[in-house]
Structures are given as structure tokens and as C-alpha cells.
Amino acid sequence: MKKIMIAVGVTAVLSFAQWGGGMGGGFGGPQGGGSVPDADKTADVNYVGDGKTYHTLDIYVPKQAKDSYPVVIHTYGSAWSSNNMKGSADLSTICAAYVKAGYAVVTPNHRSASDAKYPAQLHDIKAVVRFVRGNAAKYKFDTNFVAVSGFSSGGHLSSLTATTCGLKEGKSGSVTVDLVGDLGEFTSFSSCVDGAVLWSPPTDIYTMNPISMGGSGTMEGKFIGVEREGNKDKWMVASSPYYASDDDPPVIIFHGTKDQVVNIEQSKELYDSLKHHNVVTEYVQVPNGEHGGNVMNSTENLNKAVAFLDKAREAKSAKVPVDTTAKDTVAKDTVAKDTTVKDTTAKDTTSGFVPLIAKSYDMEIHGNRLFVYGTLAEFRYTIVSVNGSRKINGIFRKELDLSSLPTGIYGIMLNSPSGEMKAIRYVKK
Asked: In sequence order, which residues have a C-beta less than 8 Å from that of residue 298 and are 6 or more positions away?
């Protein structure tokens, strides 16, 4: 069962230098600007089409010529207080390591807490994911592997992006939030990702140590729109540990043992929740690591992050659907799950979460994707063309990518674990 929680937050800060923004220290943490070596940069691309600075991104493509490049979307930390820090998004460290390893890197801006309250920032990052998929040919993106990465508050948004795939809404008690949004022109594309690298992330906003705004409330309260006391449900629908489910992508988390800004228990809580669902995950406690800085961004840690992404990409490539007539890879399949650890920790069921029952599912098609709502179950599918020339079988959860099918008319049959079967007609134009 998926639990649902609220987002970490922040606002325009009284002293930007004090609280971060790439200037060393604070909730944003020291990130630094610099540049990404050996990359061709495309700057200030608006991923929504509204002309707003907070909806722009930069693209770094390795100079080494290839037909396409897997993608990492890396989001800066600012305590959600800045809407224009893509130029300080760990460029010469984390981003440079990704590019050196052959990944195209996208660094987006997003709305600050002064511009809008949660879940606006999550909508922004998901719009970036859809933008990447919708512009694969233009920028030579290999959308068979799109991962997210982020530091501090950027890690929080990345963790939510990874754990809310396929969910339209987050609910806790009487509070409901839209988890997807409708930004940009690529809404028919998926906002799911294939991996996540989280650096010093706040994850559970309700349980983390609040950061005071010096008598004017907390940074989290500014981001969410209300302070914590008496507003538990509003503080719960933005925390990634409670969205964790069996089909989440692989996640690696780095957190310093001397982090005085985001308590290290935040990363441990998400790690435990992912392990409980047998998600492929690693948790790296960095000795003497603070909130950002050279110890966190050591060569050893950067290599671990890249190796984790490489392994996730290889695992996904090895998981392909079975086509009984032709080689076709239309399904977004999940990465093999690590079943070596079975965490039996009891989950909190006091917050009014509605259980998801396998038989109470529904499905619909948006663009070239089939979505199944209301369940986290694994479905077997069969796709048959009306003329009988093509038949494809496979397994998926939440969504099925149909974009690789040739133009034609198809019938899609789904079988749930309970034995229930549904069918839907699909026309590929």
C-alpha cells in the first residue's frame, strides 16, 4: 500500500547567503557554479513555453559523438527559495561526472516557494521529464533511460518524482494534491523515471527537524503554505517514504554523518521504506560529510553514483517484453528487484490512507501511453494488431509505453493477478 505525505518546503529567505543558494552553507548547501567540461551546452530552454525564467533549463551533451545519450536531470538545492539556480547546480562536480560517463545532463529551474506552493515544484520537475521525452530526437536524448538527481531540496523533488510514478493524486485524510500537473505541450508523455541519485535529501517533511525562519515560521511551512501544528495531512502529502512501492526505480542516497542541516535520519527513512518494498536501493553514509561540499562530492562518491546508474540502465535493458512475431520493445518494464533484504517494519496506517485493491483498477490511454490507475499490481498484457500480423506479450506496472508500435489498430488485453481481464482498443496514428 502506498502512503502519502507532504512536501518539504521553503521560501524566499531573509538572508539568501545564510541559507544557501550555492554561496556556501545553509539549507541549500555549498554547490558552486563552474562549468561542465567536455560538453556542448544549450542554455535557457523554456520547457513549459510560458517565457518564465523559472521554467527554463540548460542541457549539457557530451562532446563525444554518439547517436543518442541516456539522460540525468539534476536539480539544485536552495531550500526551495530560488527559482533561478540552474547555473549553480553542482556543475563542476556531480554534473561533470555524469557527462564524463556519457550521460546528457539537464539542469532545470523550478518555481520557488515565493512563486507557488507545493505541489507546483513537483509539477515543474515532472514537466522537465516529459520535455526530455518529447524532444528526444532534437537533443539526441536516449529516453530508454531517464534518471533524476538532486541535492538537498533538489534531492527531495527528485525523490518524489521517482516514487510517485503512475499516481495522479496524493491523499492523506481530507487533503488531496495533484501529483502530475499539466504543464507544457508534452502531457501525453510519461513523467516516470528509470533511476534516482539523491544527495543529502530531506524526505519526510513531517518528521524532519524544522528550520526556523527567525520568528516568522519555518522554511517548510512557507513552502507548504501552513505550519506543521494542526496540519499533519498537508505536511504528509509531499514526503517520498510514504509513496514507496514495489515498482519504484532504483535509488541511491548519499548523506553525510556531520550534516547539521538535514538530519541523516531523513535518508535512512526513505532507504528503509524502499527496502521494505524490495526496491533496488543503496544508502551511502559519508563519514565526516556535511551538507554538500568536497567530502560529499568526492571522486569515490561520484564514481559510486555513476556506477549505480550504469547498473540500473543495464538491468533495464535486460528486461524486455516477449514479442511472438517480431522484435519490439514497447513496454516500460521495471528493473529487477533486490530481494536479499526483507524489511518487515510495520507501516503507519493511522493517517487515513485508502488501501489499493488489485481488482478495483481502471485504465485509459493518453497519447502513446496506457495508464492503469488505482493499483500497484503487476499486469500481464497482450497486444494484437487487428490483422493478426503482430502479437506482443509482456509485464508492466502503472503504465505501458506504446510509442514504438507501428501505425495501426490494436487490441490490448490486460490480466491482473486476481485473474480479472480487461481489454481496450488502441489506434496508433
From this structure: 286
Q: What is the pLDDT of residues 319-369, one digit of tens each?
A: 755 443 333 333 333 333 332 333 333 333 333 322 232 333 567 787 788
Q: Residue-wise over 191-229: b if at least 16 C-beta within 10 A, else e? A: bbbbbbbbbbbbbbbbbbeebebeeeebbbbbbbebebe
Query: Which has the closest alpha carbon to 90: 101, 82, 98?
Result: 98
One of 2.60.40.10, 3.40.50.1820, 1.25.40.10, 3.40.50.300 is the CATH number of 16-318, namely: 3.40.50.1820
**8-state DSSP, 284:** E
Alpha carbons 252 and 421: distance in angstroms, whole number? 36
What is the number of other CB atoms lying within 10 angstroms of the CB of residue 176? 13
**pTM higher than 0.85, yes or no?**
no
DSSP string, 177-245: EESS---SS-TTS----SEEEEES----TTTSPP-B-SSS-BHHHHHHSS-STT-HHHHHTT-GGGT--
Q: How many residues does the structure list for the chain?
A: 429
**What confidence tens digit (pLDDT) does each residue in 202-230 have?**
999 888 887 777 777 888 888 899 888 88
- The CATH number given to 322-428 is 2.60.40
Do the domains 16-318 and 322-428 sit in the same CATH topology, yes or no? no
For the record, the C-alpha cell of 336 comes out as: 529487477
